[in-house]
């Protein structure tokens, strides 16, 4: 599996830095731009997941699942993918919205390079379970947010 050469970056979120309010739930929740480099040659598709493990829920909170993205270098065109379920009973990106005073939450933006296409729009947990053997590369970017 490629973990060193496969890289996820964003012009909107610095790794380890605070996410700007415009991407947060209470401020319009713009979808952040993402870009990849070093896509493994055997990848046929990319998937994106954003998850907050600091959310006060047993399994954290999934903010975004996106499937069916072309396995190519450069900016990720989110309109080219299939938005999947989030933990806000919706579909697509939902911005950070931690409880007031709960401290700093970490938002893990993951991109997975897959050797097989994802069928449908599974939940994050189902995707990680059902496609674990198809992951040929993964990369992450972590932003923080608090209220």
From TrEMBL:
<dbReference type="Pfam" id="PF01161">
    <property type="entry name" value="PBP"/>
</dbReference>
<dbReference type="InterPro" id="IPR008914">
    <property type="entry name" value="PEBP"/>
</dbReference>
<dbReference type="InterPro" id="IPR036610">
    <property type="entry name" value="PEBP-like_sf"/>
</dbReference>
<comment type="similarity">
    <text>Belongs to the UPF0098 family.</text>
</comment>
<dbReference type="InterPro" id="IPR005247">
    <property type="entry name" value="YbhB_YbcL/LppC-like"/>
</dbReference>
<protein>
    <recommendedName>
        <fullName>Phospholipid-binding protein, PBP family</fullName>
    </recommendedName>
</protein>
């Amino acid at each position: 599996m490629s973990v060193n050469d496969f890289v996820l970056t964003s012009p909107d979120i610095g790794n380890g830095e605070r996410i700007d309010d415009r991407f947060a739930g209470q401020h319009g929740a713009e979808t952040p731009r993402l870009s990849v480099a070093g896509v493994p040659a055997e990848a046929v598709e990319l998937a994106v997941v954003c998850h907050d493990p600091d959310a006060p829920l047993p399994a954290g909170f999934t903010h975004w699942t996106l499937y069916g993205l072309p396995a190519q270098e450069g900016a990720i065109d989110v309109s080219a993918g299939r938005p999947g379920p989030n933990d806000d009973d919706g579909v697509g990106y939902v911005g950070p919205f931690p409880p007031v005073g709960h401290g700093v939450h970490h938002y893990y933006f993951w991109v997975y390079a897959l050797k097989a296409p994802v069928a449908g729009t599974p939940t994050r947990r189902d995707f990680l379970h059902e496609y674990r053997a198809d992951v040929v590369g993964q990369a992450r970017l972590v932003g923080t947010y608090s209220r």
